[in-house]
Amino acid sequence: MLLIESLVHEVVCHEHDIARHIPDPDGGLTHYEQALELALARIARADVPTRWSDASAEPADPLPTDPDWAGGSLYEDVREHRSDAAPQQVWQVIEAIGGEHGWYSFPLAWAVRGWADRLVGGVGLRRGRRDPRRLHVGEALDWWRVESLDRPRLLRLRAEMKLPGRAWLELGVEPSVDGGSLYRQRAVFQPHGLAGHVYWKAISPFHDLVFGGMVRNITGAARSR
User: Which helix H or strand E contains 201, and what residues bound it?
Assistant: First the structure.
C-alpha cells in the first residue's frame, strides 16, 4: 500500500552508479513507457509466468487426502456424471474454470459469496486467473489456489476465502468403460469448532443448486465443444 501511495510523487534518477557493477543491456535501458507497453502486451498474450496473487499465506495447509486418523472432521459433497464427451473435452472445461468463464452454476450466488468475503477482509473473486486456458500449481484462481494439477485427470483447489474451517474443491475426469468420460466432483470441508459445523449445515441446502449445477453445466459445456 505504501508503495502504491508513493506513486503520487514524481521520482527522477539522475545517477547511474549501478552501471559499474551491472552493465546496461544490449541496446541500452528500456524507457518506462516502453516497459509498460511490453508488460501489457505479455498480459494480452497470457505470457505471464507469475503475478502478485500467486503468493500464498498458507503453504502448509493439510490435504483433503490426509487419513482419518490425522484428526478432525471432514464433510464431503461427492458427485459423478457420465458424459458422451471425450475426456479431453471435459478437461479443457475443467482447466479453464473460473475468471471470465465463471463457475458454471448460479452466478449470482458466487458473486454474493465473493462480495461477502470482501466485506470480512477476504480476497473475494477479484483475483481472477492468470491465463484463460491453462493453470499451474500454486497460482491463484479467484478465491481458490491451485494445490494439485494432474493434467488431464485431476484439478484440486484450496479455498482462501474467509471460512470457519478449510475447504477444497476437486474436479476430475477419466475415460468411461462404455465410451465417453466419467466426470467426478468432490467438495471437502474441514470445520473449525462449532462455527464450522454450523456453517456446513447452513449451506448444505444449497449444494444441489451450486454443486449439482456445476456437474450439469461443466459436462454440458464439454459436449458443446
Answer: helix 193-203
Provide the whole-model pTM: 0.69
Is residue 180 included in any domain, yes or no? yes
To the nearest 10°, the Cα dihedral for 209, 153, 147, 156?
20
What are φ and ψ of residue 219, in 5° steps?
-70, -35
Cβ distance 218 to 89 under 8 Å? no
pLDDT of residue 20: 87
**What's the average model confidence in pLDDT over 156-163?**
94
Q: Check residue 103 and give left, alpha or beta (phi > 0: left; psi -120 to 50: alpha).
A: alpha
Parent domain of 98: 74-224
Between β-strands 165-175 and 154-159, what pairing exists: parallel, antiparallel or unpaired? antiparallel
Task: With respect to residue 190, please indicate whether it lies within any of the assigned structural domains.
Answer: yes
Cβ proximity of 169 and 77 under 8 Å: no
Cβ count within 10 A of residue 4 = 7
| 34 within some domain | no
3-class secondary-structure state, position 31: coil
Give CA separation, 165 vs 2, 13, 19, 102, 204, in Å: 32, 49, 51, 24, 15
